[in-house]
Amino acid sequence: MSSSSSAEANNDDSSAVTVKRVLVPIGDGSEEIETACLTDTLTRFGAQVVVASVMPSKEKVCTMSRGIRFLADITIDEAAKEEWDLVALPGGMPGAEHLRDSEALIGILEKQKSQGKLYGAVCASPAVVLASKGLMGTNNPNGATCYPAPAFRAMMNHPVNDDVVVQGNLVTSQGPGTSLKFALQLGEIMYGKKKADEIAKAMLVQR
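The chain above was modelled as a monomer; its predicted structure follows.
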C-alpha cells in the first residue's frame, strides 16, 4: 500500500480523504492499557491502526504484561515493507525489551526519524527502546519523559516529569495513566487541535 503522501500526489479528487496509517508494535509483555489507548483513540480520529508482533517466532498472538492475549494484524517483518505516518510504541516489561531487540522495528524507527516522520513511545519504551538505540531527540531543551522509575530515567540524557512531551517529530509519555493524553496528542499532531478536542470531549477526557 502506498504512503499517504503518494496517495495525495496520485489522487486527482480533491474531495478524497487520505487515511493516516499508524503502526503499533507489540511483543510478549507489552502493556495492554497503553496498547488499547493507542489503537482505540487513534482509530477514533480516523486513522488506520495496524498492530504488528515483533516476536521472533512470527507468532501474532502476544501475551501482554497482565496476561491478556492480543492478536496482532501482521508481523513486524511485514510492517517493515510499508510506509507509516506514525509509529507508536507501548511500554511494559519485558515488552519494551522485545521491541528493542527487533532489528526490523529499529529499522522502521530509524526511517521515521531520518525522514522527519512522527514516532512516539510511552512508559518504559522511551528509555529501553529509543534511548538505547540513539533514537531520542538531541537538540530540544524540553527533554523527554518516560515511566518515572530510576532505572529508566538513568538511561535518558534529560528526563522530565511531564505527562507528555513533544520533541520535534518525537512524542514521549509516562505510562498507563497518561496514555489517553499521549494518544490524543499524537492525534492532534496528525489531525489538528479541533479534532483532538472533539474526540477528547466525546471520551470524557479533560485536556
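The CA atoms of residues 195 and 206 lie 14 Å apart.
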